[in-house]
Design goal:
CATH architecture: 3-Layer(aba) Sandwich
Radius of gyration: 19 Å
Structural class: alpha+beta
Distance between the termini: 66 Å
Number of domains: 1
Strand content: 5-15%
CATH superfamily: Glutaredoxin
Shape: globular
CATH class: Alpha Beta
Number of helices: 7
Number of strands: 5
Order of helices and strands: EEHEHHHHHEEH
Length: about 200
């Protein structure tokens, strides 16, 4: 007699974001947790989320540069593991705060700090339970032309300028103008239909 094993549904990074779900602008970053540049730009992202509250949603996608930072892959996996309990952003910030010490045992301690309750957290990490989700992000990053991190996209358009507050704000403002012009272009057409 065969037993059907329960399907495990994993929440993937592409389904995790912070901000309003139906915001007109999506800001996506490809980055990793050992990078000083990514840590600096994480502070910029926090400012952007405050500045454009309700207008943008932010998504972090994993692109660990394992040739330079050997611990970045497991750190990314630990963030995906935390996401399974709705603690992605807590873990995300804890990892950046501790970016110089991302050994596997440290990741277990950080998960507790982030509020993760999973008793098998370390086992899942050692066994690479969330490795495929990180690999999917890396593959998507390559397909979208990511070569260096941090890499940003505003509504799927790559931001080629340095990711400063001013440059990212300019890209977001431009995207907001585009979305406004699309909405106003649709309204007269709707009125014309009503008259007919």
């Amino acid at each position: 007699m065969a037993f059907k094993k329960d399907d495990v549904i994993i929440i993937e990074p592409k389904d995790i974001f912070v901000g309003k779900k139906d915001a007109p602008v999506t800001l996506t970053e490809f980055g990793e947790y050992e990078s000083e540049e990514c840590a600096k730009v994480n502070e910029v992202v926090k400012q952007l989320l405050e500045e454009y509250e309700g207008k943008i949603r932010f998504q972090f996608r994993h692109f660990p540069l394992t040739l330079i930072h050997q611990r970045s892959l497991k750190a990314s996996e630990s963030a995906v593991a935390a996401a399974q309990e709705g603690k992605f952003w807590e873990m995300h910030n804890v990892l950046f705060a501790n970016r110089r010490n991302l050994g596997t045992t440290s990741l277990k301690l950080y998960s507790k700090e982030a509020g993760v309750k999973n008793k098998k957290f370390l086992d899942d990490l050692v066994n690479g339970m969330y490795g495929w989700q990180v690999q999917d992000d890396i593959k998507e990053g390559h397909n979208r032309g990511v070569k260096e991190i941090p890499a940003f996209f505003v509504n799927d358009v790559m931001v080629t300028a340095r990711p400063t507050f001013a440059n990212l704000s300019a890209a977001i403002d431009q995207a907001l103008k585009k979305s406004k012009s699309k909405t106003t272009a649709k309204k007269p057409a709707a009125k014309a239909k009503q008259r007919a």
